[in-house]
């Protein structure tokens, strides 16, 4: 049952019951027509987006992939991964209709009744590989984030056909499969930039042995300036391939200092970012960079990232080719599943996770 609008959710247990236990998420909160943000979502001042720290004239690189083996293109990609940690690609090999279909599927899933979505929650899902949730790590966060998500860890087409929600399954699988061509192109270029010229089966599985796709939903928010869609963090992936809609709201931290750069939506483009795993594997040559998502007071927003990861059982550390060429390692070897567990057991905290692997 929906609570009354007078002083809504002063009691945190009532909020948890409505948002988490009943599966309404922040989408359900948004649709109540609240005039004020529940206090549980009010971020400390230092975590809110201050518009004076936004650098309007800067942009992450936009790279045309139509001739991806051209030396200028490969140099642009390696430079972007080293300097920015983020870039957008256009004229890539993922068809626009595949991108549009997965956006439509995202709206379809989040349009389902709460009790249907709730079947995929941590408490009710029949597999850890399918997870509907809200915020990031609610049990560890002092302030909650204004986002709902469905997380789909890929094991096999067979498992997906049984476990994934039917309203989005085929579209997500198509998006993942069609993206693999681009992922392999990017990894080939980035490895060559490290003088690793051969990606054998072992290396390929270390770089992209597992994949997870999230469908993210950021509903319209009262008092968006008081909260965040996603707090400051870097990804734990090798690479992240992000499809965003036309609303915007993703910000990337500039190299130095506390300035943030907006990543403008470009129809048909994909946003690529280096994750912590690639920073560690490249011995710091490629950089994972902090990013965040702002809440929006007038529009719902969706995004669909594919997280390209090592396998949970892989040890990650600087690639042996780099150490053999005389580089001093700045990271130790860590079990990837331990690294990921460390990330998920705490609230978003910028780039602190990578310290887990530092020597």
From TrEMBL:
Domain Fe2OG dioxygenase intervals: 202-310
PROSITE patterns, per the entry: FE2OG_OXY
Entries under Pfam families matching the protein: 2OG-FeII_Oxy (PF03171), DIOX_N (PF14226)
Alphabetical UniProt keywords: Iron, Metal-binding, Oxidoreductase
Family of the protein in this entry: Belongs to the iron/ascorbate-dependent oxidoreductase family.
Official protein name in the record: Fe2OG dioxygenase domain-containing protein
């Amino acid at each position: 049952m929906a609570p009354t609008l007078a002083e809504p959710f002063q009691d945190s247990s009532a909020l948890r019951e409505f948002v988490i236990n009943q599966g309404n998420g922040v989408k359900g909160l948004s649709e109540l027509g609240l005039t004020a943000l529940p206090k549980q979502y009010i971020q400390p001042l230092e975590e809110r987006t201050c518009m004076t720290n936004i650098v309007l004239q800067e942009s992450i690189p936009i790279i045309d992939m139509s001739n991806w083996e051209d030396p200028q293109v490969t140099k642009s990609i390696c430079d972007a991964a080293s300097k920015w940690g983020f870039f957008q690609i256009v004229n890539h090999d993922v068809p626009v209709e595949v991108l549009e279909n997965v956006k439509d599927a995202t709206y379809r899933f989040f349009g389902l009744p709460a009790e249907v979505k709730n079947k995929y929650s941590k408490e009710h899902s029949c597999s850890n590989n399918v997870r509907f949730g809200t915020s990031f790590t609610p049990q560890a966060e002092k302030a909650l984030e204004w986002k709902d998500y469905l997380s789909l860890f890929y094991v096999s087409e067979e498992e997906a056909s049984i476990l994934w929600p039917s309203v989005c399954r085929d579209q997500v699988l198509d998006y993942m499969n069609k993206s693999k061509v681009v992922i392999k192109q990017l990894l080939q270029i980035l490895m060559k930039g490290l003088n690793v010229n051969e990606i054998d089966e072992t290396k390929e599985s270390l770089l992209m042995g597992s994949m997870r796709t999230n469908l993210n939903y950021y509903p319209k928010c009262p008092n968006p300036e008081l909260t965040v869609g996603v707090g400051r963090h870097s990804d734990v992936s090798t690479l992240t391939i992000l499809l965003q809609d036309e609303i915007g709201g993703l910000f990337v931290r500039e190299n130095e200092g506390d300035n943030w750069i907006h990543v403008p939506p470009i129809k048909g483009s994909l946003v690529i970012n280096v994750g912590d795993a690639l920073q560690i594997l490249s011995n710091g040559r490629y950089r994972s960079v902090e990013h965040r998502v702002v809440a929006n007071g007038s529009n719902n927003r969706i995004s669909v990232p594919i997280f390209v990861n090592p396998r949970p059982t892989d040890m990650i550390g600087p690639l042996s080719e780099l150490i053999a060429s005389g580089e001093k390692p700045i990271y130790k070897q860590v079990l990837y599943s331990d690294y990921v567990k460390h990330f998920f057991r705490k609230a978003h905290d910028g780039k602190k996770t990578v310290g887990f692997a530092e020597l």
